[in-house]
Write a structure and sequence with these properties.
alpha/beta; Rossmann fold
Length: 310
């Protein structure tokens, strides 16, 4: 890291993206401040025990955001979205409002570097998926700011593969791609490492948009890796036509993959320069996710994409 002594404020620090970024920043020597709603939640207490400074706040309370940003060097900005499901009660307009106000308050507070986490599923035109198009609107605003900004665009997270409803408990796996069709995936820990590298080298990442992924795999690759780890064949196939006909959300995502928007645009060779430890799907499953995968093999449940934390 640089010689900066001021902290980086992380939004979503008790969630997946923010949690990964918080851990990577701590590991590389940064002072980290976490914006949390509940100072006494299990995850917040764990962060504090790890050396993170906690500040209580709510995205709907601008004063709490102002207070949290006082004296900070940088901001990692990620917001809940409608794609995470009704449990968060966040609309697309809410997400846009939160993202823009964080950006504007960062400028007002003298923050030197804002890293905004968007999505790689953004095209030249609106996608028709509200939780993707909302991020495009925030990106547009972030690019107008008079401070150093970096937009990271994560690919689909590998962690999504272990969610219920994709068929692992039945010895199969159904997903968006045809067996020979490819899609980029991102391990959460790689996102944290790359964001930490961005904060450590602000000149090289000034005012750029960086697509981020860990690996690019086909459906057949998933079948091979899953079968090796399971010790038995896990057959792969694309979602059936019946499933897509009865689920408009899945059908739209599958269409975005076919048009290339959801397939991923990251330059993996360049990302390996930033993070030489970039994880392949095989390496990711060989690590601490192996237990999660084996657990998923025996856990039935309904498909619930859109309910995991960002």
């Amino acid at each position: 890291m640089s010689n900066v002594t001021q902290p980086i404020l992380v939004f979503g620090s008790t969630g997946q993206q923010g949690g990964s970024v918080t851990q990577a920043l701590l590991n590389t020597g940064w002072q980290v401040r976490a914006f949390v709603r509940d100072l006494h939640s299990e995850r917040a207490v764990a962060l504090q025990s790890a050396g993170v400074e906690l500040v209580k706040g709510d995205l709907g309370d601008m004063l709490s955001i102002h207070n949290a940003m006082k004296g900070t060097y940088g901001i990692f900005s990620v917001q809940p979205s409608s794609g995470q499901g009704a449990m968060y009660g966040v609309s697309d307009e809410d997400e846009v409002r939160y993202g823009i106000q964080i950006a504007d308050i960062a400028v007002e507070s003298g923050v030197q570097h804002l890293v905004y986490s968007s999505t790689d599923a953004i095209g030249d035109e609106p996608t028709g998926m509200g939780h993707f198009d909302s991020k495009a609107r925030i990106e547009e605003h972030v690019r107008t700011l008079p401070i150093n900004t970096t937009i990271v665009r994560p690919a689909a997270f590998m962690e999504m593969l272990l969610m219920p409803g994709f068929g692992l408990d039945e010895g199969r796996f159904n997903f968006f791609m045809h067996p020979e069709q490819s899609m980029q995936l991102l391990a959460l820990e790689d996102l944290g490492l790359i964001v930490a590298a961005v904060f450590a080298d602000p000149k090289n990442f000034k005012d750029i948009t960086l697509s981020v992924a860990s690996d690019e795999v086909t459906g057949r690759d998933i079948e091979t890796v899953f079968s090796e780890v399971a010790g038995r064949r896990i057959s792969y196939s694309r979602f059936s036509n019946d499933v897509l006909s009865n689920n408009a959300f899945l059908a739209k995502l599958t269409q975005l993959l076919d048009t290339g928007i959801l397939a991923g645009n990251a330059n993996l060779d360049n990302l390996r320069i930033i993070n030489p430890a970039l994880l392949s799907l095989k390496d990711w499953l060989a690590g601490r996710r192996r237990h999660d995968f084996l657990e998923a093999l025996g856990t039935p449940g309904e498909w619930r994409y859109g309910h995991s934390q960002e």
